[in-house]
Amino acid sequence: MELNQDDQAKMRSQMHVRTGYANVTKSSEQIGRNTSNMAVKQHKKHQVVDTYFSSKIEEMQKEEELQSAAVQLLDGDQLVARVLQSLSSSKEQEQQMIESYQVKCQELDNIERLITQDRAKKFKPCLICGRLFANMEHLKKHEKESKLHKDNVEKLKFAQGTLLL
Predict the structure, then answer these.
(1) Can you give the residue ranges of every domain in the chain?
(2) Which DSSP symbol is given to 6?
């Protein structure tokens, strides 16, 4: 009994698959698609599980490394020695900064003193007003004609008079 080609193709394309529920007829293409989809889903599940556990393992390893580092730090006098060393180095740095600041202050004081001496040589000061003049001639003119100078002299006399009383 020979089947024609259409019937043979139809028979080949259909397959009886026994599932747990009933006999279901599926084509081979449908079975292939289903198995492919199942494989993809299974692969995704494995990836999720792998990434979850690999991250957990990494966390545990990091935690163990931190614990071992803490134990090493606390072991013996290493921690105390490190603290003392850092304190002594910070004190040394502080002392160096203070010394350099003192040197700079001394240099500035010397420069200011030199400038003041140089200015005193070049200029003649009015001791009452505190103004500087280029020569004695201008200073004398200031003392005779300046209203500021005369006011300052009066204030000085008044202040001295109140102190004497």
Answers:
(1) 123-165
(2) H
Residue that wins the pLDDT comparison between 92 and 119: 92
Tell me the angle at which helices 28-74 and 78-122 cross, rounded to the nearest 10 degrees: 70
DSSP conformational letter for 3: -
DSSP 19: -
For the segment 113-165, what is each residue's pLDDT rounded down to a tens digit? 877 776 666 777 787 887 877 888 888 888 888 888 888 888 888 888 776 55
15 forms bridges with which residues in the sheet?
26
Q: How far apart are CA 51 and CA 43, in angstroms?
A: 12
- pLDDT, one tens digit per residue, over 7-57 is 766 666 655 555 555 555 667 788 888 888 999 999 888 888 888 888 888
b/e 125-153 (16+ beta carbons within 10 angstroms → b): ebebbebebeeeeebeebeeebeebeebe
| DSSP per-residue codes, 83-136 | HHHHHHHHHHHHHHHHHHHHHHHHHHHHHHHHHHHHHHHH-EE-TTT--EESSH
Q: What is this structure's pTM?
A: 0.27
22 in helix, strand or coil? Answer: coil
The CA distance from 134 to 122, in Å, is 7
